[in-house]
Backbone:
C-alpha cells in the first residue's frame, strides 16, 4: 500500500493509494493547491514516481509492503520523505551509476531514477532507522 | 495510450499525449511500434501533447532508438516542454537521439 501524508501550514492529511499514478496525481493536486511552479511540480512528482516505484519493485522482495511518502510544503522548500520497511538499501550509494555516455547500441536500459533524484533535487539524505529505510529529499521552491 | 500517426514523405510522425510513466509505458511501447511500418524511412515522435515522462517512458524511447538504428531508420523527437527536455538532457539521451524544437525541424533533419 502507498501512503501519502501531506503537511501544509500545519495541516496533516494522510491518504492511501493502490497505484502509483494515483499517488502522483495527488502530489500534483497538492502542488496546484499550494501554488508550486509547473517545473517544481514536475520535479517533485518525477522523483516520488521513480523512488516509490523502486521500493515497490525491489524493497520487499516480492512480498506486499508499505511505502510512505510524506510531502511537507514549507515557505522556501518542499521536503519529501520516502519511508519503507523493506530490506536495508541506500539507493544513493548502492544503486549502480547510470551510463550516460555510451552509444545507442551499448547504452544499458535503466538506472535513471536515482540519477534524476540526485540531479533534480537540492539535497538528498538516506538513513536506516527503526528497521526502515528513510530517504529525505529537499527541493528549493 | 493512443498514438496518432501521419506520414510526410517517407517519415511517420507519431504524436503521443498525456503522461508516459510506469503505469502506461508498455502500452506506449506497443502503440508506438504499431504505427511504424517497415517501409518508413524515419520516425518523428512529437511530444507537443506530452506533459510528463518518467524513466519507464525513457526506457521505451531508448529501446525504440536501438530498434530503429538496427533497422537503418532515422529517429527524431520534437516539441518537448522544458521539463521533459531537461530529463532528456540529464539522462544523456540528447547526445544519442536527435531532439528538435519543432516538428518541421525534425522532419527536415530526418529527410536530409
Residues:
Amino acid at each position: 500500500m502507498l501512503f501519502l501524508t501531506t503537511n501544509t501550514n500545519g495541516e496533516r492529511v494522510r491518504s492511501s493509494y493502490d497505484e502509483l499514478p494515483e499517488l502522483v496525481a495527488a502530489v500534483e493536486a497538492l502542488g496546484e493547491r499550494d501554488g508550486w511552479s509547473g517545473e517544481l511540480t514536475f520535479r517533485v512528482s518525477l522523483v516520488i514516481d521513480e523512488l516509490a516505484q523502486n521500493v515497490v519493485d525491489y524493497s520487499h522482495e516480492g512480498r506486499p509492503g508499505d511505502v510512505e511518502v510524506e510531502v511537507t510544503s514549507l515557505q522556501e522548500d518542499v521536503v519529501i520523505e520516502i519511508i519503507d520497511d523493506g530490506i536495508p538499501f541506500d539507493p544513493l550509494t548502492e544503486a549502480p551509476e547510470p551510463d550516460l555516455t555510451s552509444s545507442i547500441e551499448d547504452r544499458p536500459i535503466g538506472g535513471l531514477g536515482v540519477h534524476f533524484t540526485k540531479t533534480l533535487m537540492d539535497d538528498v539524505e538516506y538513513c536506516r532507522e527503526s528497521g526502515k529505510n528513510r530517504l529525505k529529499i529537499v527541493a528549493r521552491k | 495510450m493512443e498514438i496518432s500517426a501521419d506520414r510526410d514523405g517517407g517519415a511517420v510522425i507519431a504524436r503521443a499525449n498525456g503522461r508516459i510513466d510506469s503505469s502506461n509505458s508498455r502500452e506506449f511501447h506497443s502503440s508506438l511500434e504499431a504505427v511504424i511500418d517497415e517501409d518508413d524511412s524515419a520516425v518523428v515522435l512529437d511530444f507537443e501533447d506530452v506533459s510528463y515522462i518518467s524513466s519507464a517512458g525513457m526506457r521505451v524511447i531508448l529501446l525504440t532508438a536501438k530498434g530503429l538504428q538496427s533497422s537503418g531508420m532515422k529517429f527524431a523527437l520534437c516539441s518537448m516542454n522544458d521539463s521533459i527536455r531537461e530529463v532528456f538532457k540529464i539522462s544523456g539521451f540528447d547526445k544519442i537521439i536527435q531532439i528538435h524544437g519543432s516538428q518541421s525541424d525534425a522532419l527536415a533533419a530526418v529527410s536530409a
About this structure: Chain B touches chain A at residues 19, 21-23, 52, 54-56, 58-59, 62-63, 65-66, 69-70, 82-83, 86-87, 90-92, 95-97 (CB under 8 Å). The CA atoms of residues 10 and 41 of chain B lie 5 Å apart.
